[in-house]
Amino acid sequence: MENIDLLTKSYNYELDANFIADRPVPGRHHSKLMVYDQENDQVIHTSFQNISEFLPAKSLVVLNESKVFPCRLLGEKTSGGKAELFLLSLLRSKHGYPAMIKSRGKKKLGDKFLFGNLEATITRRGDEGDFYIEFNISDEKLLMTLEEMAHIPIPPYIRDGIADEKDREDYQTVYAKELGSVAAPTAGLHFTEKVFESLAAKNIDKAFVTLHVGAGTFKPVNSDNILEHRMHSELFRISKDNLNKLNQAQNIFAVGTTSLRVLESSYKNEKFYFDQDNGFSETSIFLYPGVPVNSIRGLITNFHLPQSTLLMLVSALIGREKTLELYEIAKENKYRFFSYGDAMLILRGKRS
Protein backbone atom coordinates (compact mmCIF):
# COMPACT_ATOMS: atom_id res chain seq x y z
CA MET A 1 0.00 0.00 0.00
CA GLU A 2 1.28 3.48 -0.91
CA ASN A 3 2.40 5.63 2.02
CA ILE A 4 0.48 8.90 1.56
CA ASP A 5 2.93 10.68 3.89
CA LEU A 6 5.54 10.29 1.15
CA LEU A 7 3.41 11.89 -1.56
CA THR A 8 4.09 15.56 -2.27
CA LYS A 9 0.42 16.24 -3.01
CA SER A 10 -0.44 15.11 0.54
CA TYR A 11 1.13 18.35 1.82
CA ASN A 12 -1.05 20.65 -0.23
CA TYR A 13 -3.58 23.05 1.29
CA GLU A 14 -5.61 25.96 -0.03
CA LEU A 15 -4.55 29.46 0.95
CA ASP A 16 -6.08 32.71 -0.24
CA ALA A 17 -3.51 35.40 -1.04
CA ASN A 18 -5.04 37.59 1.68
CA PHE A 19 -3.44 35.34 4.31
CA ILE A 20 0.10 36.07 3.08
CA ALA A 21 1.72 38.76 5.22
CA ASP A 22 3.53 41.40 3.16
CA ARG A 23 4.81 43.28 6.23
CA PRO A 24 5.38 42.26 9.86
CA VAL A 25 2.94 43.56 12.45
CA PRO A 26 4.05 46.80 14.14
CA GLY A 27 6.09 45.67 17.14
CA ARG A 28 7.44 42.21 16.27
CA HIS A 29 6.29 40.49 19.46
CA HIS A 30 2.67 41.52 18.84
CA SER A 31 2.31 38.82 16.20
CA LYS A 32 -0.14 36.03 16.96
CA LEU A 33 1.06 32.79 18.50
CA MET A 34 -0.68 29.45 18.20
CA VAL A 35 0.41 27.04 20.93
CA TYR A 36 -0.11 23.35 20.24
CA ASP A 37 0.20 21.10 23.30
CA GLN A 38 0.63 17.67 21.77
CA GLU A 39 0.28 15.71 25.01
CA ASN A 40 -3.18 17.15 25.68
CA ASP A 41 -4.01 17.74 22.01
CA GLN A 42 -4.86 21.33 22.94
CA VAL A 43 -4.66 24.52 20.88
CA ILE A 44 -4.23 27.91 22.56
CA HIS A 45 -4.32 31.30 20.80
CA THR A 46 -2.23 34.07 22.29
CA SER A 47 0.35 36.75 21.42
CA PHE A 48 4.04 36.03 20.85
CA GLN A 49 5.00 38.36 23.68
CA ASN A 50 3.46 35.76 26.04
CA ILE A 51 5.56 32.84 24.83
CA SER A 52 7.46 32.52 28.12
CA GLU A 53 4.20 31.48 29.81
CA PHE A 54 4.16 28.27 27.76
CA LEU A 55 7.80 27.21 27.91
CA PRO A 56 8.98 25.14 30.89
CA ALA A 57 11.27 26.93 33.34
CA LYS A 58 14.99 26.28 32.78
CA SER A 59 14.45 25.51 29.11
CA LEU A 60 16.92 26.47 26.41
CA VAL A 61 15.82 28.25 23.24
CA VAL A 62 18.19 27.83 20.30
CA LEU A 63 18.37 30.61 17.71
CA ASN A 64 20.11 30.91 14.36
CA GLU A 65 22.22 34.08 14.45
CA SER A 66 22.98 34.12 10.73
CA LYS A 67 22.47 37.54 9.16
CA VAL A 68 20.89 38.27 5.78
CA PHE A 69 23.10 40.16 3.32
CA PRO A 70 21.93 42.32 0.39
CA CYS A 71 22.42 39.94 -2.52
CA ARG A 72 19.98 40.94 -5.27
CA LEU A 73 21.56 43.14 -7.93
CA LEU A 74 19.57 44.79 -10.74
CA GLY A 75 21.46 45.89 -13.84
CA GLU A 76 22.03 45.06 -17.47
CA LYS A 77 23.97 42.97 -19.93
CA THR A 78 26.74 44.64 -21.89
CA SER A 79 24.34 44.52 -24.83
CA GLY A 80 21.89 46.66 -22.88
CA GLY A 81 19.23 44.12 -21.92
CA LYS A 82 17.99 43.90 -18.35
CA ALA A 83 19.75 41.50 -15.97
CA GLU A 84 19.29 40.40 -12.39
CA LEU A 85 21.99 38.70 -10.33
CA PHE A 86 21.24 36.87 -7.09
CA LEU A 87 24.44 36.17 -5.14
CA LEU A 88 24.01 32.87 -3.30
CA SER A 89 26.89 33.07 -0.83
CA LEU A 90 29.63 35.35 0.47
CA LEU A 91 31.96 32.35 0.65
CA ARG A 92 34.13 32.42 -2.45
CA SER A 93 35.19 29.09 -3.96
CA LYS A 94 38.10 28.48 -6.34
CA HIS A 95 35.63 29.04 -9.19
CA GLY A 96 34.31 32.33 -7.83
CA TYR A 97 31.04 33.28 -6.17
CA PRO A 98 27.91 31.14 -6.73
CA ALA A 99 25.01 33.10 -8.20
CA MET A 100 21.76 32.85 -10.12
CA ILE A 101 21.41 35.10 -13.15
CA LYS A 102 18.18 36.15 -14.83
CA SER A 103 18.38 37.72 -18.28
CA ARG A 104 17.07 37.11 -21.78
CA GLY A 105 19.08 34.85 -24.06
CA LYS A 106 21.45 31.98 -23.42
CA LYS A 107 24.20 32.63 -20.89
CA LYS A 108 27.74 31.43 -21.55
CA LEU A 109 31.21 31.59 -20.02
CA GLY A 110 32.74 35.05 -20.25
CA ASP A 111 29.42 36.91 -20.37
CA LYS A 112 29.55 40.17 -18.45
CA PHE A 113 26.83 41.98 -16.52
CA LEU A 114 26.92 45.57 -15.34
CA PHE A 115 25.51 46.95 -12.09
CA GLY A 116 26.65 50.54 -12.07
CA ASN A 117 30.43 50.38 -11.73
CA LEU A 118 30.25 46.78 -10.53
CA GLU A 119 30.95 44.20 -13.22
CA ALA A 120 30.29 40.45 -12.93
CA THR A 121 31.73 37.84 -15.31
CA ILE A 122 30.57 34.23 -15.65
CA THR A 123 33.52 31.90 -15.00
CA ARG A 124 31.77 28.55 -14.67
CA ARG A 125 28.37 26.92 -15.02
CA GLY A 126 26.92 25.23 -11.91
CA ASP A 127 25.02 21.96 -11.67
CA GLU A 128 21.49 23.31 -11.11
CA GLY A 129 21.08 26.28 -13.42
CA ASP A 130 23.36 28.46 -11.33
CA PHE A 131 26.73 30.01 -12.23
CA TYR A 132 30.03 31.03 -10.73
CA ILE A 133 31.08 34.63 -11.22
CA GLU A 134 33.98 36.97 -10.58
CA PHE A 135 33.65 40.68 -9.82
CA ASN A 136 35.88 43.52 -10.93
CA ILE A 137 36.58 44.55 -7.33
CA SER A 138 38.38 42.91 -4.43
CA ASP A 139 36.64 40.56 -2.02
CA GLU A 140 37.19 43.15 0.71
CA LYS A 141 35.32 45.86 -1.23
CA LEU A 142 32.50 43.58 -2.35
CA LEU A 143 30.49 43.64 0.88
CA MET A 144 30.61 47.43 1.10
CA THR A 145 29.46 47.64 -2.51
CA LEU A 146 26.60 45.21 -1.89
CA GLU A 147 25.48 47.26 1.11
CA GLU A 148 25.33 50.33 -1.14
CA MET A 149 23.79 48.83 -4.27
CA ALA A 150 22.11 45.48 -3.65
CA HIS A 151 18.60 44.74 -2.40
CA ILE A 152 17.55 42.60 0.56
CA PRO A 153 16.27 39.29 -0.87
CA ILE A 154 12.72 39.04 0.41
CA PRO A 155 10.86 35.97 -0.94
CA PRO A 156 8.97 36.28 -4.24
CA TYR A 157 5.59 35.79 -2.55
CA ILE A 158 6.11 39.04 -0.60
CA ARG A 159 5.39 42.06 -2.82
CA ASP A 160 6.77 40.12 -5.82
CA GLY A 161 10.19 40.02 -4.16
CA ILE A 162 10.70 43.80 -4.44
CA ALA A 163 12.33 44.96 -1.21
CA ASP A 164 12.55 48.51 0.10
CA GLU A 165 14.55 50.23 2.82
CA LYS A 166 12.12 49.10 5.52
CA ASP A 167 12.91 45.46 4.72
CA ARG A 168 16.55 46.04 5.66
CA GLU A 169 15.36 46.18 9.26
CA ASP A 170 12.21 44.07 9.12
CA TYR A 171 13.78 41.08 7.34
CA GLN A 172 16.48 40.65 9.98
CA THR A 173 16.37 39.20 13.48
CA VAL A 174 17.33 41.55 16.31
CA TYR A 175 20.16 39.17 17.26
CA ALA A 176 21.54 38.59 13.74
CA LYS A 177 25.31 38.52 13.85
CA GLU A 178 27.09 36.38 11.26
CA LEU A 179 26.59 37.65 7.72
CA GLY A 180 25.86 34.95 5.15
CA SER A 181 22.16 34.16 4.59
CA VAL A 182 20.04 34.89 1.53
CA ALA A 183 16.86 34.33 3.55
CA ALA A 184 16.00 35.21 7.13
CA PRO A 185 15.44 32.52 9.77
CA THR A 186 11.92 33.88 10.01
CA ALA A 187 10.75 32.27 13.26
CA GLY A 188 13.32 34.48 14.94
CA LEU A 189 11.77 37.67 13.57
CA HIS A 190 9.21 37.68 16.42
CA PHE A 191 11.84 38.00 19.16
CA THR A 192 12.55 41.34 20.83
CA GLU A 193 14.46 42.40 23.92
CA LYS A 194 11.13 42.40 25.79
CA VAL A 195 10.62 38.72 24.89
CA PHE A 196 14.18 37.83 25.93
CA GLU A 197 13.65 39.62 29.26
CA SER A 198 10.47 37.63 29.92
CA LEU A 199 12.31 34.40 29.12
CA ALA A 200 15.19 35.30 31.43
CA ALA A 201 12.73 36.06 34.25
CA LYS A 202 11.59 32.45 33.99
CA ASN A 203 15.19 31.19 33.95
CA ILE A 204 14.94 30.25 30.28
CA ASP A 205 18.35 30.57 28.63
CA LYS A 206 19.28 31.03 24.99
CA ALA A 207 21.95 29.47 22.81
CA PHE A 208 23.03 30.39 19.31
CA VAL A 209 23.97 28.38 16.26
CA THR A 210 24.81 29.58 12.76
CA LEU A 211 23.29 28.17 9.61
CA HIS A 212 23.59 30.26 6.48
CA VAL A 213 20.26 29.93 4.73
CA GLY A 214 20.59 29.32 1.00
CA ALA A 215 18.17 29.86 -1.86
CA GLY A 216 17.46 26.12 -1.76
CA THR A 217 15.13 26.74 1.17
CA PHE A 218 12.63 28.03 -1.44
CA LYS A 219 13.25 25.15 -3.85
CA PRO A 220 9.93 23.46 -4.61
CA VAL A 221 9.45 19.72 -4.35
CA ASN A 222 8.85 18.79 -7.99
CA SER A 223 8.81 15.01 -7.60
CA ASP A 224 5.59 13.12 -6.85
CA ASN A 225 7.32 11.15 -4.10
CA ILE A 226 9.22 13.26 -1.57
CA LEU A 227 11.98 10.64 -1.31
CA GLU A 228 12.99 11.56 -4.85
CA HIS A 229 13.52 15.20 -3.88
CA ARG A 230 17.12 16.37 -3.82
CA MET A 231 17.48 18.29 -0.58
CA HIS A 232 19.51 21.48 -0.60
CA SER A 233 22.73 21.70 1.42
CA GLU A 234 23.61 24.46 3.89
CA LEU A 235 26.65 25.36 5.98
CA PHE A 236 26.44 25.49 9.78
CA ARG A 237 28.54 25.68 12.90
CA ILE A 238 28.20 25.65 16.69
CA SER A 239 30.69 27.37 18.98
CA LYS A 240 32.23 25.52 21.91
CA ASP A 241 30.32 27.57 24.50
CA ASN A 242 26.98 27.00 22.79
CA LEU A 243 27.74 23.31 22.35
CA ASN A 244 28.29 23.05 26.13
CA LYS A 245 24.94 24.76 26.72
CA LEU A 246 23.19 22.29 24.45
CA ASN A 247 24.69 19.29 26.19
CA GLN A 248 23.69 20.56 29.62
CA ALA A 249 20.11 21.49 28.71
CA GLN A 250 17.05 19.46 29.69
CA ASN A 251 14.36 20.98 27.47
CA ILE A 252 15.55 22.37 24.14
CA PHE A 253 13.29 24.45 21.89
CA ALA A 254 14.48 25.17 18.37
CA VAL A 255 13.61 28.59 17.00
CA GLY A 256 12.85 27.88 13.37
CA THR A 257 13.49 25.08 10.94
CA THR A 258 17.09 26.19 10.34
CA SER A 259 17.99 25.81 14.03
CA LEU A 260 16.35 22.40 14.05
CA ARG A 261 18.36 21.34 10.99
CA VAL A 262 21.54 22.22 12.88
CA LEU A 263 20.48 20.46 16.07
CA GLU A 264 19.29 17.27 14.42
CA SER A 265 22.40 17.15 12.21
CA SER A 266 24.64 17.40 15.29
CA TYR A 267 22.78 15.02 17.61
CA LYS A 268 23.95 11.43 18.07
CA ASN A 269 23.61 8.99 20.96
CA GLU A 270 21.79 11.62 23.07
CA LYS A 271 24.59 14.16 22.75
CA PHE A 272 25.46 17.09 20.50
CA TYR A 273 28.74 17.01 18.58
CA PHE A 274 30.59 19.58 16.50
CA ASP A 275 34.23 19.54 15.38
CA GLN A 276 35.58 22.96 16.37
CA ASP A 277 38.67 22.56 14.16
CA ASN A 278 36.70 22.20 10.95
CA GLY A 279 35.07 25.63 10.64
CA PHE A 280 31.73 25.02 8.96
CA SER A 281 30.03 21.68 8.52
CA GLU A 282 27.49 20.90 5.82
CA THR A 283 24.00 19.46 6.18
CA SER A 284 21.43 18.31 3.67
CA ILE A 285 19.20 16.72 6.29
CA PHE A 286 15.60 16.11 5.20
CA LEU A 287 13.01 15.70 7.96
CA TYR A 288 9.57 14.30 7.14
CA PRO A 289 7.08 11.89 8.78
CA GLY A 290 8.83 8.63 9.56
CA VAL A 291 12.19 10.28 10.27
CA PRO A 292 12.69 10.48 14.06
CA VAL A 293 13.49 13.89 15.54
CA ASN A 294 15.24 13.40 18.87
CA SER A 295 17.12 16.61 19.64
CA ILE A 296 14.29 18.92 20.79
CA ARG A 297 11.37 19.21 23.18
CA GLY A 298 9.59 21.64 20.89
CA LEU A 299 9.71 24.01 17.96
CA ILE A 300 8.88 27.67 17.38
CA THR A 301 8.06 28.19 13.73
CA ASN A 302 6.03 30.18 11.21
CA PHE A 303 3.33 28.85 8.86
CA HIS A 304 4.93 27.47 5.72
CA LEU A 305 4.15 27.13 2.03
CA PRO A 306 2.09 24.19 0.74
CA GLN A 307 4.11 21.17 -0.42
CA SER A 308 7.33 22.67 0.99
CA THR A 309 10.10 20.78 2.77
CA LEU A 310 9.50 23.10 5.74
CA LEU A 311 5.90 21.91 6.05
CA MET A 312 7.19 18.34 5.85
CA LEU A 313 9.66 19.10 8.64
CA VAL A 314 6.87 20.28 10.95
CA SER A 315 4.90 17.16 10.00
CA ALA A 316 7.85 15.04 11.15
CA LEU A 317 7.22 16.34 14.67
CA ILE A 318 3.45 16.01 15.03
CA GLY A 319 2.28 14.16 11.92
CA ARG A 320 1.03 15.39 8.57
CA GLU A 321 -2.69 15.22 9.33
CA LYS A 322 -2.34 17.14 12.59
CA THR A 323 -0.14 19.76 10.94
CA LEU A 324 -2.67 20.38 8.18
CA GLU A 325 -5.47 20.46 10.77
CA LEU A 326 -3.62 23.18 12.68
CA TYR A 327 -3.15 25.15 9.48
CA GLU A 328 -6.91 25.08 8.90
CA ILE A 329 -7.42 26.31 12.48
CA ALA A 330 -4.92 29.09 11.77
CA LYS A 331 -6.92 30.18 8.73
CA GLU A 332 -10.17 30.12 10.71
CA ASN A 333 -8.54 32.42 13.27
CA LYS A 334 -7.07 34.72 10.62
CA TYR A 335 -3.40 34.01 11.27
CA ARG A 336 -0.93 35.57 8.84
CA PHE A 337 1.22 33.14 6.85
CA PHE A 338 4.82 32.79 5.65
CA SER A 339 7.94 34.88 6.35
CA TYR A 340 6.35 38.02 7.81
CA GLY A 341 3.44 36.10 9.31
CA ASP A 342 2.48 34.75 12.71
CA ALA A 343 4.06 31.95 14.74
CA MET A 344 3.34 28.55 16.19
CA LEU A 345 4.82 26.89 19.27
CA ILE A 346 4.80 23.11 19.26
CA LEU A 347 5.07 21.47 22.68
CA ARG A 348 5.82 17.86 21.96
CA GLY A 349 4.32 15.06 24.02
CA LYS A 350 6.45 12.85 26.24
CA ARG A 351 8.52 10.29 24.41
CA SER A 352 7.27 6.74 24.61
- Order of SSEs, N→C? EEEEEEEEEEHHEHEEHEHEEEEHHE
Unreliable residue runs:
none
Mean pLDDT: 95
Helix content: 10-25%
What is the strand arrangement across the widest sheet? Answer: 2-1-19-18-14-3-12-13-17
Radius of gyration: 21 Å
The count of strands amounts to 19
Q: Tell me the fraction of residues in β-strands, as a range.
A: 25-35%
Largest sheet: 9 strands, mixed
N→C terminal distance: 27 Å
**Structural class, from secondary structure content?**
alpha+beta
Tell the overall outline. Answer: globular
How many alpha or pi helices? 7
Task: Report on the architecture of this protein.
- The protein has seven helices and 19 strands.
- The protein is an alpha+beta fold and 352 residues long.
- Strands 2-1-19-18-14-3-12-13-17 form a nine-stranded mixed beta sheet.
- Helix 6 packs across helix 7.
- It is globular, with a radius of gyration of 21 Å.
Write the layout of secondary structure elements.
Blueprint lengths: L31 E6 L4 E6 L12 E5 L1 E3 L3 E6 L4 E6 L9 E7 L8 E4 L2 E8 L5 E5 L3 H11 L15 H6 L7 E4 L11 H9 L3 E8 L21 E4 L2 H9 L3 E4 L1 H10 E2 L2 E2 L8 E3 L14 E5 L6 H10 L1 H13 L10 E5 L5
Parallel strand pairs: 1-19, 3-12, 3-14, 4-11, 14-18
Antiparallel strand pairs: 1-2, 5-6, 5-8, 6-7, 7-10, 8-9, 9-10, 12-13, 13-17, 15-16, 18-19
Helix pairs in contact: 6-7
